[in-house]
Write a structure and sequence with these properties.
The structure is a single chain. By secondary structure, this protein is an alpha/beta fold. Among the domains are: 171 residues, 3-Layer(bba) Sandwich (FAD/NAD(P)-binding domain), CATH 3.50.50.60; 97 residues, Polyamine Oxidase, Chain A, domain 2. 33% of the residues lie in helices and 23% in strands. The strands form 4 sheets. Strands 1, 2, 10, 11, 12, 13, 14 and 20 form an 8-stranded mixed β-sheet that branches. The two termini are 17 Å apart.
């Protein structure tokens, strides 16, 4: 190719793509971002809701243990708010709903969570840099988090709580979630599972995740093309040719592909990507869950509920007061079991927790059924870690894979998306030089 349309084509305009485009254009590279949706953000999405508030329908929480996102928040001086500290806990054991203080619920959780994650910090002394994957981690990667829980011999109450916590963390069934993924997350908080829980559900951007996305994007000079879905990426020794689903083509010296792992194989690559990452994409990663915002009539108090994966909605927590009503956020591990747009279905699921509870309205998005994501936040299955880390570590000719799915640190979080975008951009810049 004697002439290119741009230096770099970035496929996907989520946090990874927007971060990579900022890094590249600030160093003088010309970039075109191709985003299949009619908006940027990918699986992060802040929008006005009929519930009476602007809400995050994808990624939500950030934390000071997450260095990449925390640095960006400081860089743009963005204000934060905190989710309310729950005071009343509900947990389910068999068919029985038990209640008490959240301190009591955490006391019951502690032995099992501590045992499941024992040695995480020792196994991953630097969880932000563990490539190549050690033989010790490889030897553990066939184990599911459910198998690890089962071998502990917990009583019914503790088992239900710990199993439910991992259904929440994985946004999927624990029997298909990799034990190594749990170890990685806990190692990122120094082996402290309670700090890990805080990282997952405490601090939020006051204006939603869109405020950070927009701030990063405002420092990029990339050309952004929305409603531009990629069908094929072909490369040779000179560059890459990207073909859109409408038949248009673009050429570049390099490409970064940031689409979620579960839809990676919706793009045809020539030459093909390595067989192991193609196989992982065919199998799909572990997250299959649902997230729904719910306006509940009246004040239910600062309540949090946690149950096993058998519950259609196995976790919820109080977030806001809305004119005397309660706005809660709820999660389930199987999106096929709950329609997040169906008020009656959500009400029935929540009445398992609080009989007589009245749902005023609901709002959510089914990310698993969404053909541009096919998943919620990325969480690996057993026997996927090596293939995914290898796919992120090396270029595939003139194509690089990036995204929270491939992050070495906080995979599954906005932090991981930013990390991966910065790393991919740095490596592309060296190649362009």
């Amino acid at each position: 190719m004697s002439q290119y349309d741009t230096d770099v084509i970035v496929v996907g305009g989520g946090f990874t793509g927007v971060t990579a485009s900022r890094e590249l254009t600030q160093r003088g590279a010309k970039v075109i971002v191709l985003e299949a949706r009619d908006r940027l953000g990918g699986r992060t999405w802040t929008r006005e809701s009929d519930l009476g508030k602007s809400l995050d329908f994808g990624g939500t929480w950030v934390h000071w243990t997450q260095p990449h996102v925390w640095a960006e928040i400081g860089r743009y001086d963005l204000p934060l708010v905190t989710s309310p500290v729950a005071e009343h806990g509900l947990w389910k054991v068999g068919d029985e709903i038990r209640s008490g203080t959240t301190e009591k619920m955490f006391e019951l959780l502690d032995p099992g969570m501590t045992a499941v994650l024992a040695g995480s910090a020792e196994k991953l002394p630097n969880p932000f840099h563990f490539r190549p994957v050690s033989d010790e981690l490889k030897a553990l990667d066939h184990i599911s988090i459910a198998e690890k829980i089962d071998e502990l011999g917990l009583d019914a109450e503790q088992h239900a709580l710990v199993e439910g916590m991992w259904a929440l963390n994985f946004s999927g069934r624990p029997e298909v979630g990799a034990y190594t993924q749990g170890l990685r997350w806990c190692a990122l908080t120094g082996g402290n599972w309670q700090l890990l829980f805080e990282a997952c559900a405490t601090y939020k951007l006051a204006g939603g995740t869109k405020t950070l996305l927009d701030a990063i994007g405002a420092q990029s000079t990339a050309e952004v093309r929305l409603n531009s879905r990629v069908r094929r990426i072909e490369q040779d020794a000179d560059g890459v040719t990207v073909t859109l689903t409408d038949g248009r083509t673009l050429t570049a010296r390099e490409a970064i592909v940031t689409v979620p792992l579960n839809i990676l194989n919706s793009i045809e690559f020539a030459p093909a990507l390595p067989a192991d990452i193609v196989s992982v994409a065919d199998e799909g990663q572990a997250s299959t869950g649902a997230k729904v915002w719910v306006r509940v009539k009246g004040d239910i108090g600062k309540t949090a509920a946690l149950g096993p994966s058998s519950c259609a909605l196995n976790f919820f927590q109080y977030e806001y007061d809305l004119d005397g009503d309660s706005l809660i956020v709820a999660f389930g591990c199987d999106a096929t079991r709950i329609d997040v747009s169906d008020r009656d279905a959500v009400e029935a699921a929540l009445r398992e927790w609080i009989p007589g509870l009245e749902v005023v309205a609901v709002d959510g998005h089914d990310w698993v059924a969404d053909n541009l994501s096919g998943q919620t936040w990325p969480m690996l299955r057993p026997n996927q870690l090596v293939a995914v880390q290898n796919a992120a570590a090396e270029p595939h000719g003139r194509v690089r894979l990036a995204g929270s799915d491939y992050a070495e640190g906080w995979a599954g979080f906005i932090d991981g998306a930013i990390e991966s975008g910065k790393t991919a951009a740095a490596r592309i810049l060296r190649s362009l030089a």
